[in-house]
Design brief:
about 15% helix; two-stranded antiparallel ribbon; Cyclophilin; about 180 residues; 8-stranded antiparallel beta barrel; mainly beta
C-alpha cells in the first residue's frame, strides 16, 4: 500500500513534472531525498544524463532508458553519501515506466541525484543484472504528471549518455 505520500514538483527549462514519494515503503530513501530537496541540493543542477537504447555499450545484456538529474556523477565513491539500501525486494516498488529511483555506486553509497525510468526494467530491481551485486536500485516514488515534459527531455538525448548540453533543473520542491 502506497500510504504516507509526499508530493514533489520538478521544474526545468524544458517543462515540469510531479511525483509521489512513498515514505511508508522506502522510509530511508525518501527521507534522504526530502532532506536533499529541503537543503536546496537539487536546485540549479541539471538533467545531465539520458540513457537510450542507442547510446549505451552494445555489450550490455540488459539495456535501459532513463533520465538522470541532480548533481553530476562524482568521480569516486569518497564523494558519496551513506544510505542503507532499500531494495525493491524490501519496498515492493518495482522499476516500471516513470519510476523515481536512487542511483548508487556501491551498496549503501548514493550520490545527490535521481533517475526516472522511461520503460519497465526488471533488471534494475533486486536480483536484476544491471548492477554487479544484483541488489538493484532503490525505487522510492513515481511520476504522476508532466509525462509530456519527460518525453520532450528524453528526445533531447545525444550520442553519449552524458549530455554535452545539460538541461537546467531549476528547482525541486515538496508541494504536500
Amino acid at each position: 500500500m502506497k500510504s504516507e505520500v509526499t508530493k514533489i514538483r520538478f521544474d526545468t527549462t524544458m517543462g515540469a513534472w510531479t511525483a509521489n514519494l512513498y515514505r511508508a515503503l522506502a522510509p530511508k530513501t525518501v527521507s534522504y531525498f526530502i532532506n536533499l530537496i529541503n537543503s536546496g541540493g537539487l536546485d540549479n543542477t541539471s538533467i545531465y544524463r539520458i540513457v537510450t537504447l542507442d547510446n549505451q555499450p552494445a555489450s550490455l545484456e540488459e539495456k535501459i532508458e532513463v533520465i538522470q538529474g541532480g548533481q553530476a556523477i562524482p568521480t569516486d565513491s569518497e564523494s558519496c553519501d551513506f544510505l542503507s539500501h532499500e531494495s525493491t525486494n524490501m519496498t515492493k516498488i518495482l522499476h516500471s515506466k516513470y519510476t523515481l529511483s536512487m542511483p548508487r555506486f556501491d551498496l549503501n553509497e548514493v550520490y545527490r541525484s535521481f533517475f526516472i525510468t522511461m520503460g519497465d526494467y526488471p533488471c534494475l530491481d533486486y536480483l536484476g543484472n544491471r548492477h554487479k551485486d544484483k541488489q538493484g536500485f532503490a525505487a522510492f516514488g513515481e511520476i504522476t504528471s508532466g509525462f509530456e515534459s519527460l518525453d520532450r527531455i528524453f528526445s533531447y538525448a545525444e550520442r553519449s549518455d552524458i549530455l554535452r548540453n545539460p538541461i537546467k533543473l531549476i528547482s525541486v520542491k515538496v508541494t504536500q
